[in-house]
Design a protein that fits this description.
Elements: H1 5-13, H2 15-26, H3 32-38, E1 56-59, E2 63-67, H4 68-78, E3 90-93, H5 104-114, H6 116-129, E4 132-134, H7 141-148, E5 155-158, E6 172-175, H8 178-185, E7 190-193, E8 196-203, H9 212-223, E9 231-236, H10 238-242, H11 245-253, E10 262-265, H12 269-277, H13 281-289, H14 298-302, H15 304-307, E11 310-315, E12 322-324, E13 332-334, H16 335-345, E14 351-357, H17 364-379, E15 387-391, H18 395-403, H19 406-412, E16 416-417, E17 440-444, E18 460-464, H20 467-476, E19 488-489, E20 495-496, E21 518-519, E22 557-563, H21 568-571, H22 584-587, E23 596-597, E24 606-607, E25 614-615, H23 617-626, E26 631-634, H24 645-654, E27 657-661, H25 667-675
Parallel strand pairs: 2-3, 2-5, 3-4, 5-6, 8-9, 8-11, 9-10, 14-15, 14-17, 15-16, 17-18, 22-26, 26-27
Antiparallel strand pairs: 1-7, 4-21, 12-13, 19-20, 22-23, 24-25
Helix pairs in contact: 1-13, 4-6, 4-8, 9-11, 12-13, 17-19, 17-20, 24-25
């Protein structure tokens, strides 16, 4: 079933006309992303030759998606907007609050018990304002959006940095803060600095052990975590057309790790095939009818250096598997060099756990290819040396891969299947022994591997790879293992090699599911009551921040000067703090506790100038606020890169920070700070 088909048909009805107009006022041929952007201008936006990286433009996105951790704050804000219903199709997805501990069934029950108050709030507020609700266990927001809502040529925003995943279906999809989502749901314009354009030309075709994940791991190594800042990364070429739709989604998903505004692929037959496989034949037909417009102009393809600000070319024929890390997703190492580099740097080479899944790599194709490697452990009598976990992306994927026998394959090698949720990828992993903070190595197919990210242990060396490579590495239990060249000794003492992975991109028998987990809102929600207890420690009705008095900020004190990276993981970490995402005052107790103080190189220990004492950052901020002393934060690199940008902006504002000074500011974070009247 295609959701919101009338809205999509309306977008397509005059898409080509809008593109033709855009060519005229832009005065040149257009990239695919520029076509979508210019076709989604807010009605009051003047049409002119927008300058990349300079012009601030008002847009009208087609839809909004919110995950449960950030939706709380967004919908608490929307409740104050005085609207009876959202102005654009919107959804909420309960995926962030489920902790991976024992296994899917028990973990889901525990999550429903622990988070009942939050789930009831989200479901009731969704019901009241016409928002679709995907209950806990339905799947990870980005996989569910790809399966149900993403459409070529569309534009959406979402309250999660990996909203960009929908670029795999040819959509401009951008992660934003809750306040931006509220503006769009209220029918207002959404402002964005017109992005720069980075073109990635893919030639050749993936083969052997290489996977779509290796493309973005390679790109991350080239651009680094800040090379995509303020830009859309647009993939094109014969190599791009050869990739599956979900493989494209993987690449776009991890574009967030290079700081990109979003990433996108042009519409092609693999996208059409995916739409039909996910029961959206009518959408596929509609997209096919305008397919000639859903790509960059011919002049752009013919002379990409002229129309993109930067062009990267990757030959997929010669690309090899990568493992990126540790502690940053842009430290790219080809698998052929990992042994030498790991030994040179003293990285722990014994792999303790291999984890596959997450919003980045949890499609049918990902699970099928990983299972083709996993089953060889049994068939070739190989002992699996590391723990192994699987996180399906949606109930539709989980149900289908169980039907097709893949979950049984994982079970036969000791694999543990977690709930259809974010889990370890965002720190929702109750990993036994992590509190001991022992030095160890894990490999996973997630998107981020910052310090403490997965299990809270600063001494966990996390490496990012494709699901099939992670599976092979878990079987070997050794970071130095190269499945392309190395043999393993099985239980009989015989040396064997793992065969290359294989698997269909889409199920031959079609997708199947009994209960996808969707709850439609009431046609008229005017009588639906939304209850928030005044004594709740999870939810808090918001009060407006004091308006700027028009005067200069004087007498401000430095709260903290951060050293090095200051991502959202440093500003407002997830993990155990996720439970407070709907309570601004409580969640503010984690503000900047992960940032390194440049003056003493310690975390969460800053000098308060009022009493000269060293104390935790939030405590110092509260003391300044109580004394009516304004504060400033000085950042360093990549301030605001990552997820949860809304909280990363609201917490400082709530605790009295009036200005943020940085070398490089992530664009979405800049917009949120502006929305909260915090100088930057």
């Amino acid at each position: 079933m295609t959701f919101d088909l009338d809205m999509i048909k309306k977008v397509y009805s005059d898409f080509e006309t809008r593109v033709n107009e855009a060519r005229a006022f832009m005065g040149r041929p257009l990239t695919y992303s520029e076509k979508i952007l210019c076709a989604h201008l807010f009605p009051s936006q003047a049409k002119e030759a927008f300058k990349r990286g300079e012009s601030y433009v008002d847009f009208a996105p087609d839809r909004v998606a919110m995950q449960d951790a950030t939706a709380q704050m967004a919908l608490l804000q929307f409740m104050q907007a005085g609207k009876k219903k959202v102005a654009v199709p919107s959804t909420v997805h309960a995926d962030h609050l489920i902790q991976a501990r024992v296994g899917a069934a028990k973990d889901l029950i525990e999550a429903e018990n622990k988070n009942n108050e939050v789930y009831q709030f989200l479901q009731s507020v969704s019901n009241k304002y016409g928002i679709g609700f995907w209950k806990a266990g339905a799947g990870i927001i980005h996989q569910v959006v790809l399966e149900n809502y993403a459409f070529p040529g569309g534009m959406m925003i979402g309250t999660d940095s990996h909203t960009v995943n929908a670029g795999g279906l040819g959509m401009v999809a951008i992660g934003v803060g809750g306040a931006d989502a509220v503006d769009v749901m209220a029918g207002m314009a959404w402002e964005l600095k017109f992005p720069k354009m980075i073109g990635v030309k893919l030639t050749g075709r993936l083969n052997g052990w290489t996977a779509p994940k290796d493309i973005i791991l390679k790109v991350a190594g080239i651009l680094t975590v800040k090379g995509g800042t303020g830009a859309i990364v647009e993939y094109f070429g014969e190599g791009a057309n050869s990739l599956s739709c979900t493989g494209k989604g993987t690449i776009c998903n991890m574009g967030a790790e290079i700081g990109a505004t979003t990433s996108i692929f042009e519409y092609d037959q693999n996208m059409s095939k995916y739409l039909r496989s996910t029961d959206r034949e009518d959408l596929a037909d509609a997209a096919d009818a305008v397919a000639h417009v859903l790509k960059a102009d011919p002049e752009v393809h013919a002379n990409p250096e002229k129309y993109y600000d930067e062009v990267i070319e990757i030959n997929l024929d010669t690309l090899e598997p990568y493992l990126n890390g540790p502690f940053t997703p842009d430290l790219a190492t080809p698998i052929s060099q990992m042994k030498e580099i790991a030994e040179k740097n003293g990285w722990p080479t014994k792999i303790e756990v291999g984890l596959i899944g997450s919003c980045t790599n949890s499609s049918y194709e990902d699970i099928a290819r990983a299972a083709s490697v996993a089953k060889q452990a049994k068939e070739k009598n190989i002992e699996v040396k590391a723990e192994y976990t699987i996180t399906p992306g949606s109930e539709q994927v989980r149900f289908t891969v169980e039907r097709d026998g893949f979950l049984k394959t994982f079970d036969e090698i000791g694999g543990k299947v977690f709930a259809n949720a974010c889990g370890p990828c965002i720190g929702q992993w109750a990993r036994e022994g992590a509190d001991k903070q022992e030095k160890n190595t894990i490999v996973h197919s997630f998107n981020r591997n910052f310090s403490k990210r997965a299990d809270g242990n600063p001494n966990t060396y996390a490496f990012v790879g494709s699901p099939e490579l992670v599976t092979a590495m878990a079987i070997a239990g050794d970071l130095r293992f190269n499945p392309l060249t190395d043999k393993l000794k099985n239980k009989d003492g015989i040396e064997v090699m793992l065969d290359e992975p294989s698997g269909d991109d889409l199920p031959r028998l079609g997708f199947d599911v009994e209960d996808p987990g969707y709850i439609a809102p009431a046609e008229d929600g005017s009588n639906v009551e939304v209850i928030v207890s005044p004594t709740s420690d999870r939810l808090q009705i918001l009060e407006a921040f004091p308006a700027w008095d028009g005067q200069n900020i004087t007498g401000a004190r430095l709260l903290i000067k951060a050293y090095g990276k200051c991502t959202t993981d440093h500003i407002s970490m997830a993990g155990p703090w996720l439970k407070y995402r709907g309570h601004l005052d409580n969640i503010s107790n984690n503000m900047l506790i992960g940032a390194v103080n440049a003056f003493n190189m310690e975390t969460n220990n800053v000098k308060n100038e009022l009493d000269g004492q060293y104390k935790p950052v939030p405590d110092s901020a509260r003391q300044y606020k109580a004394s009516e002393v304004p504060t400033i934060v000085v950042g360093d690199e990549n301030y605001g890169e990552g997820s949860s940008r809304e909280h990363a902006a609201m917490e400082p504002r709530h605790l009295g920070v009036r200005a943020v000074l940085v070398n490089l500011l992530q664009e979405s974070t800049r917009l949120i700070l502006k929305n909260k009247e915090c100088l930057h």
